[in-house]
Amino acid sequence: MTTATSTPAGAAGAPGHEPVLGDPFGAVLRRCWEGGGGRDLAFEVVERDDGFIIAQDAGKYFEPRDQWPQTEQWAVERAQGRVLDVGCGAGRHGLALLESGHEVLGVDSSPGVVEVARERGLDVVQAEFTGLPEGIGRFDTFLLLGNGTGLLGTPERARAILDALAEVAAPGALLFGDGLDVPTPPDRLSYEQWNSERGRPEGFVRIRLRDRLLASDWFEYAMIPPSDLDRILEGTRWELKSVEKSAVHYLATLRLRD
């Protein structure tokens, strides 16, 4: 026999209350991984601060190499030496490089994601991208994939991240970052207008991740077109070497300045 229960007034998740602050991305990847890592097992929900919501199949974080966007395949093919996979997620890029004989370290801020990637065989540290732990050594290649340029956020945060990576970069190191180069979709035109009215820069969205009653902190996600990369790199130790496109994706290759 089952007994019906009610949510106490004022409890997290009750009508009119905010979700519980936690690690929704880690929870989604855990559910997908335990279900076999395929499609239609778990969905990553992204909520914009104007209420717009989309859901994305988490199975993409476990896809084999031949199913990745071409830009991600290019980056992994061109990686050299010791690799730091920044925002490694479930570890699909790092694991492919391990199979190719590279020494790879992943870094992600989500404790749940770190656990999943470790279980899959990747060496991972839990850290913010601007607070890499001491003693991790130097790297010849940095990966910022899966629309990773968006995680750079505001120009100020982007420079802080790039400066932190430069501190652990070997001479001549390369950084591969991919993003989307598409016209502003109709659903974002009114949002861009709202941003302008609030004095916020064009091309940035404030989002959080959701899973059931869990939510992440709000954070800035950047829609950085290739034409803005030089501006983002101003004042950093990185220079833009090339930008290549495949369909709606682009791959930016950065090189550490001498």
TrEMBL record:
It holds the Pfam family Methyltransf_25. Residues 83-172 form the Methyltransferase domain. Keywords: Methyltransferase, S-adenosyl-L-methionine, Transferase. CDD domains: AdoMet_MTases. SUPFAM superfamilies: S-adenosyl-L-methionine-dependent methyltransferases. The keyword Transferase applies. Transmembrane segments: none annotated. It comes from the Bacteria. This is Methyltransferase domain-containing protein. It comes from Streptomyces griseorubens.
